[in-house]
Amino acid sequence: MKDNVDSYVTKDGRTIGPVVMEMKNITLRFGGVEAIKDISFDIREGEIRAIIGPNGAGKSSMLNVISGFYVPQDGEVWYRGAPRPAMKPFQVAQQGIARTFQNIALFEGMSVLDNVMTGRLTHMKSGLMSQMLWRGAAEKEEIENREVAERIIDFLEIQAIRKTPVSRLSYGLKKRVELARALAAEPSLLLLDEPMAGMNVEEKEDMSRFILDVNDEFGTTIALIEHDMGVVMDLSDRVVVMDYGKKIGDGTPHEVRNNQEVIDAYLGVAHD
Ligand SMILES: Nc1ncnc2c1ncn2[C@@H]1O[C@H](COP(=O)(O)OP(=O)(O)OP(=O)(O)O)[C@@H](O)[C@H]1O
Where is the ABC transporter domain positioned along the sequence (predicted)? Predict the structure, then answer.
């Protein structure tokens, strides 16, 4: 583990930078249910950080804390060196954080391109007044936004379906369009909610490759939650393992794979 260094270079030549987000003793309750119990970990610039765990472990709750959707009752989230206050979704987006959802949240009746364009909303500056006063500015912005959207569509190899309504796409392609929409926001931190759930083997392989390519090509820091331990092991730089709301492992895939508590949790060994 490289816990005490500012940055380091991975075996495959990527630079992992300093800590960008720190979860400090996070506890989250829903009434009497403690979904997250005093969990701390960090996310470094440029890394792929996975949070895994069996059903009900608290992964979705944790992703919602990272995204700012849930505010924990105890603990603090630090982002870029400062404690992060409660925020509205648009403020989260303005901080350069974008996410995908477990249950795909696309506009089914709209084309792939139009869906990806919705990811540009936070970058659209010209309001109605300036559009009326000076159409040129709005047009220039529209062209720039379209260029970004088209570039991402090419990158994720979905050019052939750019005019197709999302409702006609396979599940795997919808997941890829959702990734494209999140990328259109040009996030510095990308949160992926079970990106491989419900996919067949080939779709999982494609999605893994795209996640790696996004991280490599754009330098995007990626935090993802995933139920299936296998799929994230080849993908992630570091992995947090949760079980019953607690953190039971944190380290490289190799370290986590050899952690007895993690092995027991995945084999369903009974708790005290
Ligand atoms: N909005 C909520 N209201 C009440 N309880 C909740 C809520 N969200 C989650 N929980 C509870 O918190 C615990 C953790 O749930 P969470 O969905 O975060 O786990 P998970 O690891 O994402 O599970 P899964 O892999 O099944 O999606 C569970 O006991 C769940 O029932």
Answer: 21-269
- Ligand 1 atom at minimal distance to the Cα of residue 31: 4
DSSP 24: E
Q: State if residue 59 touches ligand 1 by the CB under 6 angstroms criterion.
A: yes
Q: How many domains does the chain have?
A: 2
CB of 56 shorter than 6 A to ligand 1: yes
Domain carrying residue 154: 110-186
Please tell me the distance between residue 63's alpha carbon and the centre of ligand 1 in angstroms: 11
89 shares its domain with 159? no
Ligand 1 contacts CB of residue 259 (under 6 A)? no
Q: What is the pLDDT of residue 104?
A: 74
9 lines ligand 1 (CB under 6 A): no
Among the candidates 161, 186, 211, a domain finishes at: 186
Averaged over 115-126, what is the pLDDT? Answer: 78
Q: Are residues 6 and 85 in the same domain?
A: yes
Establish whether this prediction's ipTM goes over 0.90. yes
Q: Do 84 and 209 share a structural domain?
A: yes
CA nearest ligand 1 atom 5, residue: 30
Longest Cα–Cα distance of the chain, Å, equals 69
Of the candidates 80, 92, 63, 82, the residue with the CA atom closest to the CA atom of residue 17: 80
From the CB of 55, is ligand 1 less than 6 Å away?
yes
Examine the pLDDT at 180 and tell me if it is beyond 60.
Answer: yes
Same domain, 161 and 212: no
Domain for residue 159, yes or no? yes
Ramachandran bin of 229, using left for φ above 0, alpha for ψ from -120 to 50, beta for the remaining angles: alpha
- Residue the block writes with tokens 């986590």: 256
